[in-house]
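Case study.
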Amino acid sequence: MKVLAIDTSNLVMGIAVTDGEKVIGEYITNLKKNHSIRVMPAIHDLLSELNISPQSLDRIVVARGPGSYTGVRIGVTIAKTLAWTLKKELVGVSSLEVLAQNGKHFEGLVVPLFDARRTQVYTGLYGKRNGVFQSIEPDQLILIEDWLEQLKERNLPISFFGNDVALHRPVIQEMLGEAALFGSMADHNPRPSELAILGLSKKPEEVHTFVPSYLQLAEAEAKWLASKEK
Amino acid sequence: MSENNELILAIETSCDETAVAIVKGGTEILSNVVASQIESHKRFGGVVPEVASRHHVEQITIVLEEALEQAGVTIEEITAVAVTEGPGLVGALLIGVNAAKALAFAHNLPLVPVHHIAGHIYANRLVKEMEFPLLSLVVSGGHTELIYMKEHGSYEVIGETRDDAAGEAYDKVARTINLPYPGGPHIDRLAEVGEATIDLPRAWLEPDSYDFSFSGLKSAVINTVHNASQRGQEIRPEDLAASFQASVIEVLVEKTARAAKEYGVKQVLLAGGVAANKGLRKALEERFKDANCELVIPPLFLCTDNAAMIAAAGYIEYKKGKRAELTLNGVPGLDIEA
Ligand SMILES: [Zn+2]
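After joint prediction, the assembly is written out as follows.
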């Protein structure tokens, strides 16, 4: 089975191709540049370097968010359109779950994290259960301090992943002390090959109804709902 | 395949309609599917960009599939993919642009970028062959322009609004007299039964200018309503609508007629969403009845945003050899003359 994986949900842009049991191509940048301009050329270049036609793909896997609304939509739009027009399977994976894979060989718990502004983060809790690395707390949008309060009660070493961790490192260290671990520079980019691998183990979804996972309503919609409840 | 059998698949997502169309030979509509979001945006009193972008992602493959099905063609039969590059809401444009790029890439098809306003103008070619030189009056929620065309695909803006677009003024005035969004059609409906008894300004600007300005008119309407309510007087909304509409239309029609004469055009084309306005249509028909140029007004479904018009404009660009790379981006402030 040949899989194309696309992640444009945050600053890191990643494309990977797997063939059977092998990761045969992977492209990652961590740049503040426009995904809309760069992602299709990156897919084109990687596939042509690998000599793989779009038609010969079997499955398209996309990081469905959370992250930048616009970034998530670019990847999801391309993945949906490719899957639909090429009649291929479409699989969506949480962007946080992809990032969490960087910690799957660590002891203790794993926290992937994207900054969501106004001291909020998109995050989740992952770790081994019955020997299998998996989600322990659902992905969520939460104030960093509230999240750290919850994590503290676990009394276990916790590794943090993501390039945005640096923004919150002082408060993490202040609240968790020695229990907080930070990995190295190479541990913070979500890897599209991990996205592809996760995508292999999940069920394909209906293309037409596939939507990003924003983890929050559009601001106007939230306000409108609040005004209706009054 | 003969020369005029090319099938253009076009995608338009610049604002709040997710639209895909398939047009044969630049003029024959095989399908023209529009998923409107208006019901969703009504509750906000206007288009919310983030909500629009979300709806586009939800609709895009559904609308693509429906357009192919209605046209009875497969993607393998398509000659080129055209897409609105701009202007518009950037997040909304990006959905169409990236879907178009994915399609072009998947099937190795030429990708043709289209200016949204060129699309509105070319809606006319779906009903009547163009004759050059021509003049197009483009009136929509975001645009009020007079565009001169000496040949296919050539656009010269000879007049444009210096502040609000006509459609914007309609929406703001509608809000002032508590009409629901979108206000344009409501004002048009009220104006039909009202009388233009209220004296409102006409912004002619410099004598030789083809530019427009509607912010003064909009303020005058707001002041009129405000002053009347302070004096405890009642203004009939029908009369206010009729007076406002009379002012907008007089300036639009007069400047169009003057430009048509000066540029010696063979055709005058009405384009854009406000072209659905009955009052404007009637006034133009009246004014050009005896003129020695032909007035073309497309049917309503081609005036509002749709993808058939993008396919029609895209066909011309395709024939001229215009192509976009996979680096194509949505450009919110795209210039039509560039
Ligand atoms: Zn338009």
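Observations recorded in class. The pocket of zinc ion is lined by residues B 116, 120, 140, 272-273, 305 (CB under 6 Å). Chain B has eleven helices and ten strands. We will return to this complex in the next lecture.
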